[in-house]
Design goal:
Layout lengths: L4 H8 L16 E4 L4 E11 L10 H19 L2 E11 L4 H17 L3 E9 L3 E11 L14 E5 L4 H9 L7 H12 L5 H6 L4 E6 L4 H12 L2 E5 L7 H4 L5 H9 L6 E5 L4 H11 L3 E8 L4 E4 L18
Length: about 325
């Protein structure tokens, strides 16, 4: 039995792709289709009972379905352009479909993404979107370029989506004033497309945080063959999450909870002023949380210099 989903992908679905600029193993594939532009292509699936609760407002399902794909474009520094939708439905519920499509198109229109095709069928509720975007040849952000000494940055706040899920599952109790913001993080993530575009000529590597910071940073480290040192106290989180950081579940939400859809990226330390300017221009907090090191290990340090246990490194569908 496969130990995790990425081993499954490596063993059964990773092959040579001589016709592609970049194949399996990043946030999107890159295809050369003529001219000076690469086509970035990514597919994400949302499954009822796995990625969302069956009674979730369909508007939020539509929003999140396109948001997670837009986040992949952001992580590649690609400008999103087109999408296709494959939708499996238990029944043709027009009220549900109206809300779902409203949520999907509201965010798609915001980013000028056109829905150009797809498929519908009867079956368990599944939403699968393939998104395509454009990026000038040779400028795409990848996971392979992190260098020893680079700063590690993250956008926005981490852990609120996981905190909301923990509340819904009864693992902890959020105060009423905190619940709304955390539920928004879970149901309506904001894809950092503008940030991805701004990082094209600066970031040495990038990834979106979908499975948890440690898991996704780990993909950069593996692809770039480097390690990292992360300062726990530097990780950006909300007041609601700070109240729970003394508990194991709070630490897990911050380091490994997933569903953040923020960007984690590495940049040479000489560009810190430029990153600060991007943060100011976009009105988006960008936080330096660590440094790339030699070796292959990711170490999370406490304020006193001690090493924090990080055995639970992130979400895995098959674990």
């Amino acid at each position: 039995m496969m130990s995790h989903e990425f081993e499954l992908i490596r063993n059964f679905f990773t092959r040579a792709t001589p016709g592609a600029v970049l194949g399996v193993g990043d946030d999107a594939a890159l295809l050369q289709v003529g001219g000076d532009v690469n086509l970035a292509v990514s597919t994400d699936m949302l499954v009822s009972g796995v990625h969302f609760f069956s009674d979730t407002d369909p508007f939020f399902i539509g929003h999140k379905a396109i948001a997670v794909n837009l986040s992949d474009m952001a992580a590649m520094g690609a400008c999103p352009r087109w999408a296709t939708l494959a939708l499996s439905l238990p029944e043709a519920d027009e009220v549900w479909l109206k809300k779902f499509s409203s949520g999907l198109f509201a965010l798609a229109d915001e980013h000028q993404v056109e829905l150009v095709g797809g498929d519908t069928t009867r079956g368990p509720l599944n939403v699968c979107i393939t998104i395509m975007g454009e990026v000038p040849r040779g400028t795409a952000l990848r996971r392979t370029g992190a260098q020893v000494g680079d700063d590690v940055w993250v956008s926005g706040l981490l852990g609120d989506a996981a905190l909301a899920l923990a509340h819904v599952q009864g693992s902890l109790q959020l105060a009423t004033q905190d619940l709304e913001g955390c539920m928004a993080a879970l149901q309506q993530p904001v894809p950092r497309v503008a940030l991805g575009l701004a990082l094209r000529d600066l970031a040495s590597s990038a990834i979106d945080v979908s499975d948890g910071l440690l898991a996704d940073l780990g993909h950069i480290l593996e692809s770039s063959r480097v390690g990292a040192s992360i300062l726990f106290s530097a990780l950006p989180c909300s007041r609601a999450l700070k109240l729970h950081l003394g508990k194991p579940i709070g630490k897990r939400c911050l380091l490994a909870g997933g569903d953040d859809y923020e960007l984690c990226f590495t940049v040479s330390e000489i560009h810190r002023t430029k990153i600060d300017k991007i943060s100011s221009d976009l009105g988006l907090p960008l936080t330096r949380v660590g440094v790339i090191t030699k070796g292959a290990q990711c170490v999370v340090l406490a304020a006193d210099g001690g090493i924090i246990d990080t055995q639970d490194s992130g979400y895995d569908h098959f674990r």
